[in-house]
Write a structure and sequence with these properties.
There is one protein chain. The protein has 2 domains: about 5-130, no CATH class; about 135-190, no CATH class. Helices cover about 25% and strands about 35% of the residues. It has helices spanning about 15-20, 130, 135-150, 165-175, 180-190, and strands at about 10-15, 30-35, 40-50, 55-60, 70-80, 90-95, 95-100, 100, 105, 110, 155-160, 160. The protein has a 6-stranded antiparallel β-sheet with strand order 2-3-4-5-6-9. It has a two-stranded antiparallel ribbon with strand order 1-10. Strands 7-8 form a two-stranded antiparallel sheet. It is elongated.
Length: about 190
Amino acid sequence: MAKTTCEESHKLDTQFLLKHGYLQDIPRYGSINWSCRGEPTGSVSIYVYPQEGFIKFSYTQTNRWDGTKTDFDYTVRLVTSPCYFGGKRWWFRCPLLINGLPCSRRVGVLYLAGKYFGCRKCYDLAYQSQQETRSGLYGLMGKVFRRDEDEYIRYKFWRGQPTKRYLRHLHKLDRGFTEADLTELNRRLGIR
């Protein structure tokens, strides 16, 4: 059975808080909203106290089976570490308990995969890329499509000859595909 992924969970990132001015020297509060395909999927009110070193979460979860609502209101520690070239890096301390002991792992991202925000290790979350198949036609096609979208080959030909990188790319495309698959891939790559 596949693990729950980080991409399926709501997350809160210290870099997001820093970018939006929550980690300045004064206390700040606000609301963070999540949505999927335009539909709201969750929101949390946050109260950030950087000088005191904590962030307070306030939200309500609704049980999808019986509709009961549960209110949550708790704090998570914020810590900093010095950067090599000056400044500081902000971290959360994971508030979850493992076997009755606090995790307290220093993390940059907290996930709401259960009732409380916690680190990826405590919730045993995997990344989507860790669960994708590495073999087979569909795994290879997915890898090629991602490669096509993420990495553009700058020069396919140089002085009339195909480049080594382009030949390697074609070789990867050639393994395990039918003629129709190759035609579709060539169309997507812009190869005539």
